[in-house]
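debug: dumping io for the single-chain case to check the tokenizer round-trip. Nothing else runs in this session.
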Amino acid sequence: MSIGRTDLNLLKVFEAVYEERNLILAGKRLHLTQSAVSHALRRLRELVGDELFIRMGRGMVPTGRAMAMAPTLLDSLRRIEDALGVEPFTADQSRRRFVIAANDHVTEVIVAPLSRELQKVAPGVDLVIRPSTRLDLAEQIDLGRIDLAIGIFSEVPPRLSSRDLMSQGESILMCKGHPASRRKLKLGDLTKYPLVTLSVGGQEEGAVGGFIVERGLARQSEMFDRRALEQALLESQEMPRLRVTVPHSLAIPALLRGTHMLAIVPASLATALAKSGDLIRRTPPYQAGVETMRAVWHGRDDHDMGHSWLREMIAKTARTVEEALE
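debug: decoded output
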């Protein structure tokens, strides 16, 4: 294939179809009709000599050739855009869409207040939230399908950039009227009353030491310090009963309501959930570790003005959340 025959607009169509996996959505993104997108794909297929995308149901599934092309092609497109230069990013005028990977805890404590602030300063900017618990998170960042991920990461590979957002410990939640609600919690309460804990993956999903490692990115799987809890109870020779382990933090209020269970959760989540008035937040009766939440993105976006602006907005929101915990 001669590069002289290649219309760079066809590569933008490839990018849109690859990321959206749907001709209609790709067309909306490019401001093209579905037939125009189909025509562009047909031209690209002729140039490459491969189908590239196969229709499956209502979506488009990339072929092996498309999967192999995508990382280099998408990175090259961004380099071309950087080299040509782009118009300065103006938040109040922008209609850009950012894709953020976050679990429901992060969505509750950071994304929700971030969204409210964006409504004031950048009403045309849209956010798309993807689950950060997906096992291909690192790949999604590599391919440009996710602009930024927020979570707790013990390892970040060199190709990715990161920024500390906030640090926090743990809290214990219980429903109003719990037998331990009118006094300071004791270690014995953690073996007397069943526990609710958060986990978005276990050993069956490749988790080691509470973290899942994929393509060099190690993300937290268990949302509590299991080692600190077990170490604190070691002398009593009793182990806690983890009665319910859930992947979704916003299910915790319903699980605690009308029971004597206790939930161990990140401090920021406990603060948010206790605002409803039917849950009580307490300090753990043991020394739990402090975890640092970080934002992670691909290094190619380091100097993107819009991306940099979003990172600053997220960091500002996180600082406000952290200050409220002190």
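debug: round-trip ok. Residues 97-165+292-325 form a domain with the D-Maltodextrin-Binding Protein; domain 2 fold (CATH 3.40.190.10).
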